[in-house]
Write a structure and sequence with these properties.
The complex is a heterodimer.
Chain A (H helix, E strand, L loop, with lengths): L3 E4 L2 E4 L5 E7 L5 E8 L3 E10 L2 E4 L6 E3 L9 E3 L8 E8 L7 E2 L3 E5 L1
Parallel strand pairs in A: 2-11
Antiparallel strand pairs in A: 1-3, 3-8, 4-5, 4-9, 5-6, 7-8, 9-10, 9-11
Chain B lengths: L2 E3 L4 E5 L4 E3 L2 E3 L5 E8 L6 E7 L6 E3 L2 E6 L4 E6 L8 E9 L7 E2 L3 E6 L1
Classes of the chains: A mainly beta, B mainly beta.
């Protein structure tokens, strides 16, 4: 039972490059989320999806793009990475609206 | 408005001591859910417990126990006979049934268990 996985786990990139972080869950959960975790800011929601082909903005969506063509995948793309996007990114999923949310292992992204 | 406050930023205790992590929440919903997550030094976020607003029964799971009191809007977490492996950041979180977007996390309490 793989659960929820993220790839890559670590990524170093340069300012201006496009980067895609992958998230895959095997539970067929309807809801999926992307958070970033930064010192002093805690966990902040970037985007979420209530079902395939439905996405919505969270607190800090600027500079990020998401898509969800399949229930199990929820990739997060940084179209033109900036140093302020250096962070740890967590993907999460939950079955239904009020169910428990489970997190992936995280991706540590460094933008030079 | 949704809000979760973990007033204790950092706590240090000696191994085998009991420790309580405080969590106070604010919500206008009558139906809501409270969570605790653990983030060990390895970085992953591990789900510990979920309670709904209609269930005020305290819960015990091994050395962990949770005290939910609606009267004081608190959902405190106690570790009995702490161990070094309990060292982590612990997050309290709240979700409201009326919203499907996110759960609100507290800032976390960093717990150090000293050998």
């Amino acid at each position: 039972d793989a659960g929820i996985t993220q790839s890559p786990r670590y990524k170093i990139t340069e300012t201006g490059r496009q980067v895609t972080l992958m998230c895959h869950q095997t539970w067929s959960h309807s809801y999926m989320f992307w958070y970033r975790q930064d010192l002093g800011h805690g966990l902040r929601l970037i985007y979420y999806s209530a079902a395939a082909d439905i996405t919505d903005k969270g607190e800090v969506p600027d500079g990020y793009v998401v898509s969800r063509s399949k229930t199990e995948n929820f990739p997060l793309t940084l179209e033109s990475a900036t140093r302020s996007q250096t962070s740890v990114y967590f993907c999460a999923s939950r079955k239904g609206r009020t169910d428990t949310q489970y997190f992936g292992p995280g991706t540590r992204l460094t933008v030079l | 408005a949704q809000k979760v406050t973990q007033a204790q930023t950092e706590i240090s205790v000696v191994e085998k001591e009991d420790v309580t992590l405080d969590c106070v929440y604010e919500t206008r919903d009558t139906t809501y859910y409270l969570f605790w997550y653990k983030q060990p030094p390895s970085g992953e976020l591990v789900f510990l417990i979920r309670r709904n607003s209609f269930d005020e029964q305290n819960e015990i799971s091994g050395r962990y126990s949770w005290n939910f009191q609606k009267s004081t809007s608190s959902f405190n977490f106690t570790i009995t006979a702490s161990q070094v492996v309990d060292s982590a950041v612990y997050f309290c979180a709240l979700s409201e049934a009326s919203r499907d977007d996110k759960i609100i996390f507290g800032k976390g309490t960093r717990l150090h268990i000293l050998p």
